[in-house]
Amino acid sequence: MSDHLHEPGLALHVEDLTVSYRARPVLWDIDFDVPPGVMAAIVGPNGAGKSTLIKAVLGLVRPTAGHVTLLGRPYRDQRRNVGYVPQRSSVDWDFPTTALDVVLMGLYGHLGWFRRPGRPEIARARNALAEVGMIDFADRQISQLSGGQQQRVFIARALVQDADIYFLDEPMAGVDATTEKAIVNLLRGLRDRGKTVIVVHHDLQTVRSYFDWLVILNVRVIAQGPVSDVYTAENLKRAYGGQIALLETAPAHPAPTQAG
Question: Are 51 and 169 contacting, i.e. CB atoms less than 8 angstroms apart?
Fold first, then answer.
């Protein structure tokens, strides 16, 4: 294990990470770093392992090999300092609970599961809902909200934690343009307060305008670093192969949307 592993100056350090499903590597020997205080995108084609990478970092998937540190320490020591917004498609939206209760779940790490949230916690949760423009829906069942509204509630749940690092898995997928703009502005606000925001992102055409740090992934890390250095036709071709032709021949069209 290298001395660099415990480098406290990095928000995220991933070293030699391999994740396999039934002996097939989904991520292979991944190495990359994310400095603090950036808005970072993880992009790559369908099946590149983007969601798996976030889950491995957060201990939701067990890696075959490798090490991960957040702010110089293992995730188990930094759990309270990390916020996570999963893919909307992975959530059971029929679960009978209100928007306010969903946001309060973000405080369980601070409260413990058996202490009831009191007035200060409820005030924090309501403030987070106000920040994402959802205070008027605090008592609404989440099943009755639109996709964009549900996404805002989940971002409020992460905001209420007041974490140092935020991971969001495809937060802009399937939301309208107004919601997308609101989400981007919220995430920029977090970055401007010194937080680190790491986003699995599918739309290549907005990468340069939304993000300042980039990791291009396709089972292995293709490239990483500042967007201005890494977002090149050569790197995108190495990751996406022939799928990238759409961007070069018709830049006005939407980029190929990718999940996974």
Answer: yes
